[in-house]
Amino acid sequence: MKTKEKLDIASISGSALSIIHNGSTTTDSYGEYQSREQIINLDSKVRSEDEPNPEHPHVTHPTSYMDTMLHLFRGNIGSGLLAMGDAFKNGGIIFSPIMTAILGVICVHAQHLLLNCSEEMYRKTKRDKPPGFADTVSLVFEYGPVTLRPLAPTMKILVNTFLCITQLGFCCVYIVFIANNVKMICDQRGLHIDLTIHMIFVIIPILLICMVRNLKYLTPFSTLANVMMALGVGAVLYEAVQDIPPVESRDYIAHWSQLPLYFGTAIYAFEGIGLVLPLKNEMRKPELFQKPLGVLNLGMVIVAGIFVTVGFFGYLKWGDEVAGSVTLNLNPANVLSTTVQVLITLAMLLTYPLQMYVPVAIMWPPLKKKYGKSSPVAKELGFRVLLVLLTFVLAESIPQLGLFISLVGAISSTTLALMFPPIIQLVSHYQNNNGLTVFITVKNLLIISLGLFIFVTGTYQSIASIVQAF
Could you tell me the end-to-end alpha-carbon distance of the chain, in angstroms, rounded to an integer? Predict the structure, then answer.
């Protein structure tokens, strides 16, 4: 259920960290009423012994290798993980593990491209802080070929737009996820209520918690959510490996019409590209982030392994009956299963306001300049209410969890994870006269083509399946 929900606290795809820490103009206007506290608590018990990062003097509490690795796990292992069983159903028991590994390699390579371009723009512009995702894309075009420089503001708007779409999509998925799990628990106890009513009840606590404007006060909730998610995922995996049928009982590769749904869900799960820049910039030794056995490569190998494990056993255990979240396949009569559903449901509920922070931080500052001169706090709270209600309406319109996840992944996660990074590398290499070798050109065009393929086919098949479901 990403991105980069990719969370959890960091599953906001790390985008909020980028907004807070990377010198974005968004922070300048938004900071008057918003906390500049880190979304991820990057302090450790021994932090006072750490020395400042000489490469990034703006970092006051640098993190160690293991600190950063844990934050990378938190940012990538979230709601998308629970949908991997459904992804494997749409891909096949043999095709899906292989393709998931390939997609993981491509996504990590794209993250390296973004990191390299950000570091290059940081050196070239001599900024106080390394640029975030949107600023990196904008700066690459701004310092790129003359004919492309006018596109810089548009590219920044595009990145921020897709970040907002991704995060609001995550919020919609959370509402559907929470409502479905609550309905299942209530149904088992004889309280049969329509899913729409459950969504209405769910939106009440979400509205209340989203009124917390200072991230500092959300940190305890996010820590609790991470613990709940870890316990829940462990219990789900334990249940999935009990009394499993033979591999031969499942489709080795799904019908071609289902494959776009697999790609959309898988990219949704892997969409944590907005997280990598802030995590690297907060490290005491940022050079360890991108080394062959650095945080990014090693961490994502482990993350991909967890995705494959949950997806493989989820589909093998429940077959075509596997749900958009494997928690919905648990036996509600079992006390352990009910406990797992409650834990993960609460984790999603507590994580929702962190996902919502990113679109608020991107959209509210320009609106505040135009409409918020009087009673800015009240108007910001009203804006938050409108965004929550928007996600509720969208979730109400598409209550099919698996299809919703695939749609979000195909539309926005694919663009952020697979298309922008190779594009900015092509622009950067062309401008620096490094020579666009045949290898770099062909490789990047293949990645962009894969992104376009998933975007078009995934969006079409998701929408077609949603229409068919109704």
Answer: 21
* CB atoms closer than 10 angstroms to residue 468: 9
375, two tokens: 């009673």
Q: Say how far apart CA 418 and CA 111 lie, in whole Å.
A: 9
Q: At what angle do helices 152-188 and 401-408 cross, to 10 degrees?
A: 170
Place of tokens 């320009």: 366
Q: Answer positive or negative: Cα dihedral of 162, 168, 174, 175.
A: negative
Nearest CA to 40 out of 207, 231, 282 is that of 282
| Spatial distance between the Cα atoms of 66 and 44, rounded to a whole number of angstroms | 11
d(CA 224, CA 360): 23
Helix (H, G, I), strand (E, B) or coil at 429: helix
Residue closest to 414 by CA, chosen among 265, 257, 259, 255: 265
Residues in the chain: 470
Rounded-to-integer distance, Cα 185 and Cα 191, Å: 9
Q: Cα 224 to the chain's mean position, in Å?
A: 19
Q: Each residue's pLDDT tens digit in the chain (470 positions)?
A: 444 444 444 444 444 544 444 434 444 444 433 333 333 333 333 334 344 455 555 555 677 888 788 778 877 777 788 889 999 999 999 999 999 999 999 999 999 999 999 998 998 888 888 888 899 999 999 988 889 999 999 999 999 998 888 888 888 888 988 898 888 888 888 788 888 899 999 999 999 988 887 766 766 776 787 788 888 888 888 888 888 999 999 999 999 989 999 998 898 888 778 778 878 888 888 888 988 888 999 999 999 999 999 999 999 999 999 988 888 888 777 788 888 888 888 888 888 887 788 788 888 888 888 887 888 888 999 999 999 999 999 888 877 777 888 888 888 889 998 999 999 999 988 877 656 788 889 999 999 999 999 999 989 988 888 888 76
From residue 33, give the alpha-carbon distance in Å to each of 27, 36, 307, 312, 376.
10, 9, 38, 46, 9
Angstrom distance (rounded) from CA 455 to CA 110: 16
Phi then psi for 333, rounded to 5 degrees?
-75, -15
| Alpha-carbon distances of 458 from 193, 198, 331, 429, rounded to whole Å | 32, 29, 31, 30
